[in-house]
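Class prep. Sample record?

___
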Amino acid sequence: MKQFLKYFFASVLGTISAIILLMVLSFFFLMGLVAMVDTDEDVTISPNTILKLELKHELPERSYFNPIGLPDIISSNIGKKIGLNDVIKNIKKAKEDDNISGIFLDLDDINAGTWSILEPIRNSLLEFKKSGKFIIAHGNSISQKAYYLGSVADSIFLTPTGDMDFKGLYAELTFFKKTLEKLDIEAQVIRVGKFKSAVEPFISDKMSDANRLQTKAFLTSENDYLLKKISEARKTNVDELKKLQDNLLVQSPEDAIKYKLVDDLKYRVDVDEYLKSLTGKNSDEKLKTISLKKYMKVEGKEKPYTSDRIAVIYAVGEINSSKGDETTIGKENIVKAIRKARRNEKVKAIVMRVNSPGGSALISDIIWNEVELAKKEKPFLVSYSKYAASGGYYISCGADKIIAEPTTLTGSIGVFALIPNTQKFFDNKLGITFDKVMTGKYSDFVSGLRRLTNYEKQVLQKQVNRVYKQFVGNVAAGRNMDYSAVDKIGEGRIWSGLQAKEIGLVDELGGLDKAIEMAADMSDIENYRVVEYPEIRDPFEVFFETLLDDTSQKVFGQEINRVIDHYSKAFDLLKGSKVQARLPFEIDEF
């Protein structure tokens, strides 16, 4: 009887659990359907409306439908995930929209991404101002990124009890040497170039002198550029701004006024009253605003029909041997996209938007070859976003023209191999041992279960040297440079977009819009449509992949999750392709 009751209650508990799980899954599924139905709603607006611009979520390169992944259910971020492309498109639309009087820029919790993501948005706002319409910015707490974006506004307001960051930039790198030592894992490294520091986190507990040099140079270039643009917008002196950073002089809202970083101290309710006055409304009337998400559904002015097209191919994420998706560059998605655009007679030019820290050297070379085939038939340009490093630079070095943001992390022309030796980890930590039978002396080459012999290290070094030589050669051919000149600026060193233009790695500074305009000029077309590749996958297909995604962002705190993310990327690097062309490190910029 006792056994019967035990199994009976176990069966009941299992049934209840299954029913609850089914209900939860059904809820997620229905929520996704509701979000999908909402995406096609038409919206109209009346005159004297203000476009309210909030950038509280990280922006992907382009919008896509985010179907009920568990983390997003918890954060209520279901439905269309707004991308950088739609932000810029709608700021342009607002410039021409007679019903839009101006833009209100909410500077709280700006989390759109890196400086290279903010730069094209800021430039779009500067273009918007040419229409004569106003931009007003306000924040309770203004970060450095928020201030850079808001510096284009006609007036910047800060809450009287708020705060503002203005302290300069720093980069934080994470090192795993001590972790591997505790786990009895040995990182076996083969590399080319003194700056190729992707392997440093596994063999050191701090930056090498070379790595510190390149990181300092990159950040200094970036910071100098940001201060220059702020000084132009706010009509202040660069040296004075640098002095404020270096001495941490902005310590209170009153300091922000004193040093002319903001125009006045106002609570949000007072800013709303000011906005009413700008749109000709009385204090007792309601302020008319529209969110970006809703404004995206407002019809813009129709353009004349044309069959001519410029293809924009989004190459985003790490380069690996998977098929690839919206966040990774695989062995299929970008190759197929380039091939499809090349074979489409209506496509007159191709622009590849690259945002990648690199990855597999093999896949990078396959994509590079596809670019070479495409540019023989039509103009092929590249636009750089946050990263165009290592493999990210490799895949695009043969383009007819390369356009980078001033703050794009560019170059890192170098190659490495990282083979973990996990023998002691399994033996000492887990008590697991292995035995083997081989048909050849080196059949277990790079198995990861033992230390490499000197001969095996020599073999790997030859492979790495060969890939590096090919990498440098491809860059030299694509950029019309001598091999020795590329080798000198290579060695795995990173550069800002500004620096990269000076040394010949890029042709122009600017964003995706500039690259598209250049592509149109090179194709001798004026009227064209922009088409995007690869095609966004069906939401239901993504649903089943994302439903059980990792929820660490919600379970753990933000800081804990940053550490988890670093560890995850580190071990992805350890188990990645044998020979890699990858960015030297993951940087958190502040």
User: Anything to note?
Assistant: Confidence is low (pLDDT under 50) at residues 4-9, 68-77, 548-564. The longest strand covers residues 155-164.
